[in-house]
Write a structure and sequence with these properties.
single chain; 3 domains; 4-stranded antiparallel β-sheet
């Protein structure tokens, strides 16, 4: 019709540029609607800087480059065709860049399968954290904050709270296996003064009800007892301390340790019990040496509640608090909530992975759907000939679907080892972690295959059921 190569190139680039800028407008609208949800998901408070000129320069430049880049291939490739060859039908097999299209589908599904693996692993690790035996009970434990504000009434407050019907027991301390106070010192076994023999140990100050309230297990010895005045110079150690002392649980009983080795009369603490290891730090950390000392620490009151209606019990505790500490604020939280706060980053990561997995799968399906539609249209005459020769709808659908499953198979082969390696690296941050089972990789692969089949089958069945007479008239 008289158009030259340059005019065709301009046409293609203009069309892709217009599509790109229309997409920009839609993207800004979607971003405005989605930003509050994203801020809630990520724990951030981001906003779109509409008044920043640099923002608009970057956005417009990126959109322009995207339009030019996406339109450059058809512009420079298709404008080279010889009109006579194209009108005769030759050269059509190369129109559209099959290799590039297939590579993009493989790339999209590689990202999707990787995100599926990541999501499964993150949620599996979070479930492991929630269900792991931590060595203490965190459920139905109510923490009353800042109880030191009760002053001299603090012990009376504890005693009166324990009289409430829904309260099993209570302990007064500032040291808990969830975020709370921490303190550590160097201790030495009696008779040892060498620095290399020092025991770097957490020293927590608790009362006689601490172990029973948190349902910890003594594997040797006894708990603190009000009847023993000597317990003020006693200590209960955990199993991790045994490995430092190089002793068995029963051997450690009666051993004395001190942190005042430089004094003429150091204060020695006698080991009266050994408690089973409990995770007092994040599961990213190994359990270290720890000693429980009988001492005054009034930061919080931990209350073990009976199963039932917690709201009425909390109201009753609040009434006791206002009676003992008038004018002081009443603040509380449950220990399991405090425990979960340690893993907010992992929980947020899991939600982010889930959202982006869904988005990635959606984008990959759109690409695969478009490719399936294009392929079915390009093979219209071939499908018609096959139907005339006796091919069934199932056979044609199978043939069209298999081609795309090969691409998905390539994506799976790339993403499985990559996903396994990256998520193993992520799990290395945890001292206590799951191992990635073979079923995780298999499930991710099956999900990708299932999604691909559902996406392609519509176009494949539609093409297979078309009237062969109309198909043979297409050329």
């Amino acid at each position: 019709m008289g158009s030259n190569k340059l005019e065709l190139v301009r046409q293609f680039l203009t069309e892709s540029g217009l599509i790109s800028f229309i997409s920009l407008l839609l993207a800004i609208l979607i971003a405005l609607m989605a930003l509050p949800f994203f801020n809630d998901l990520s724990g951030k408070s981001l906003s779109i800087p509409f008044l920043n000129p640099i923002f608009w320069i970057i956005l417009l430049a990126t959109t322009l480059l995207l339009g030019l880049f996406s339109g450059s291939y058809p512009a420079f490739f298709m404008s080279r065709f010889m009109p006579a060859s194209v009108l005769k039908g030759s050269g059509q097999s190369n129109v559209g860049g099959t290799t590039i299209r297939n590579a993009l589908v493989v790339f999209q599904f590689t990202i999707s399968v990787f995100l599926i693996i990541s999501t499964l692993v993150v949620f599996q690790q979070l479930n492991f954290i929630q269900s792991k035996d931590l060595g203490f009970t965190k459920d139905q434990i109510l923490l009353i904050n800042d109880t030191y504000a009760a002053g001299n009434q603090i012990n009376a407050f504890k005693e009166e709270v324990q009289q409430l019907g829904q309260v099993k027991r209570a302990t007064l301390t500032g040291f808990f296996p969830t975020p709370s106070w921490r303190g550590s010192s160097s201790f030495f076994k009696e008779g040892a003064r060498e620095q290399e023999k020092a025991i770097q140990m957490q020293n927590w100050y608790v009362d006689q009800d601490y172990i029973s309230t948190l349902n910890m297990k003594l594997i040797a010895g006894r708990n603190f007892d009000k009847q023993f005045n000597a317990d003020s110079t006693s200590v209960i150690i955990n199993e991790a301390t045994l490995s430092v002392l190089n002793m068995q649980p029963n051997e450690a009983l009666g051993v004395r340790i001190s942190q005042d080795i430089d004094l003429e009369k150091p204060v020695f603490y006698t080991i009266i019990g050994v408690v089973k290891n409990f995770n007092y730090e994040s599961l990213r950390e190994n359990i270290g040496a720890l000693g429980l000392f009988l001492g005054k620490s009034t930061d919080r009151l931990a209350i073990k509640l009976k199963a039932g209606d917690f709201s009425n019990t909390i109201k009753g505790i609040e009434e006791v608090w206002h009676k003992m500490a008038p004018g002081q604020p009443f603040s509380y939280q449950f220990m399991d909530e405090s425990f979960n706060s340690i893993y907010k980053a992992e929980q947020r990561l899991g939600r982010i992975f889930m959202v982006f997995t869904i988005l990635s799968i959606l984008i990959a399906c759109l690409g695969l759907f478009g490719l399936a539609a294009f392929n079915a249209q390009k093979r219209t005459k071939e499908i018609g000939v096959r139907k005339v020769l006796g091919a069934s709808v199932g056979q044609i659908t199978y043939g069209l679907t298999t081609d795309f499953l090969k691409l998905v198979g390539v994506a799976i082969m790339i993403s499985l080892p990559f996903g396994w390696y990256i998520m193993n690296k992520w799990l290395e941050d945890f001292s206590y972690r799951i191992s990635i089972g073979w079923w995780v990789l298999l499930l991710a692969a099956l999900l990708a295959i299932g999604i691909a089949i559902v996406t392609v089958s519509y176009q494949a069945i539609k093409a297979a059921r078309a009237n062969p007479v109309k198909s043979l008239r297409t050329e």
